[in-house]
Amino acid sequence: MSESSEDQACREFLTGIQVGDVCDGTVAEATHHGVTVTLDGFPARPLGTVGSQDLSWTRRQEIEPGQRITARVLSVDVDAAQVRLSTTATENPELWSFLGSLRPGERMTGTIASIERFGVFVALDDGPGHPVFPGVGFITIPELSWRHFEDASEVVRVGEQVTCEFLQFDTTNGEARLSLRATLPDPFAEFADRTAVGRTLRGRVTKLVPFGAFVEVADGVEGLVHLGELADTPVDAPQDVVRTGDGITVVVIEVEREGRRLHLSRRRVRAARQSAG
Description:
- It contains 5 helices and 15 strands.
- The protein has helices at residues 3-15, 87-91, 93-100, 187-194, 269-276, and strands at residues 22-31, 34-39, 48-51, 68-77, 82-86, 107-116, 119-124, 137-140, 161-170, 175-179, 200-209, 212-218, 221-226, 247-256, 261-265.
- It starts with a helix and ends with a helix.
- 26% of the residues are buried.
């Protein structure tokens, strides 16, 4: 078979495969990155790949070349001639079926099962448990709250009952990505509704960065005072003029509602007061 005819046959084979299909094949190569798979129906070359995170949670070390596997299709790239597969999906059909039935925006209830530095696991009230993690649901740190916090334990506690919004099915970890903050009012939107450019506010410095300082001007609302807006004269670093925890007066110079960004100025406060007076 010539290269062009083989490529055509490969393309035709791949167009017949859909995400969610279950495929059988033979492991062609196994490395610490995962395995490549020669799929049944196209013996010419391996088209399937199973990444290390998509391999068996219980039999990962047992998978070797020549072994027969059954895996679920996660994605198909016809141009790259590659099918991404998951054997964890076929080993946990009840879990995958449950997660696949969820829709973005759906409200779910559960109990906080574990608090980690990278997020929070939630044991969902409905659906199966997870064979590896403390819960099928997972909330990343940014999705816990609209408000600033240092540690997840400031927002939730283990054993607490919560209602979250489903964001997406994480096929790599076999979990439901959730958002707690999506169920709560956005304080930035409320702030933007009542705050006009030129308004003077009192706030607290929450964080210093090389390009300026973040200032909390309302509960859950932070804005950036750029380095050039911190003082009347140029400064090399924000810590030259302010410290974390300082209370300062600022003026609103721009509100980006869609991007949820607030731009503030400290050096323009005097002019804003004179203009208002």
